[in-house]
Amino acid sequence: MALDYKTLKEKQRQIRESFHENLGLRVHRALSWLQRAELETEDNDARFVFLWIAFNAAYANEISNRQKYSERKFFIRFLKRLIDADDEKLLYNIIWREFPRSVRALINNRYVYQPFWNFHNGDENYANWEDSFDNSKTRANKAIGQMDTVKALAVVFDRLYVLRNQVVHGGATWNSSVNRDQIKNGADIMGHLVPVVIHLMMLNKSGIWGEPCYPVVQ
Known about the structure:
The protein is mainly alpha-helical and 218 residues long.
């Protein structure tokens, strides 16, 4: 089943009356940014940024809802809820059937591994970044080998988050030849993950997704 803006928008129109208002707002916003991302057929920097905004529109909660959890723990809980709703194994298929090469390339890329940059920027606490990088790759490859979707996706999003920070915070040059591989891989992976995330949230419309950031205020 192909999941894109058009398909998801048609589904949303059919069932949105049954959505809780929080889910309805999340899906509405996420679809708008997915639509914008799909218009970018050549600019992978822009496509990646628009896809990240779409993902954030679906995922992000008010910070008060995260007081009991670190950002990463909160995200793992979110992933587990999605996977519990994923009877079609769509997330599984992205990791092991559609983009295994792109996923492995991202996992093995030191330039999207934050401890590498911490050490490069002078923090001696990360002098052993190479050892931790090797351990991270080993854990990820073990998760992939064991078909552990949660652990594999958690590592993928660790890398994607570093890439996101590089681009959004001005740590990269637009259309630079230096970081083309990770941008292309990141945009391709997000281009498949984001529609699935939106689809699974709509399937689990009875779930409690929490207050979205910046709700509509009349």
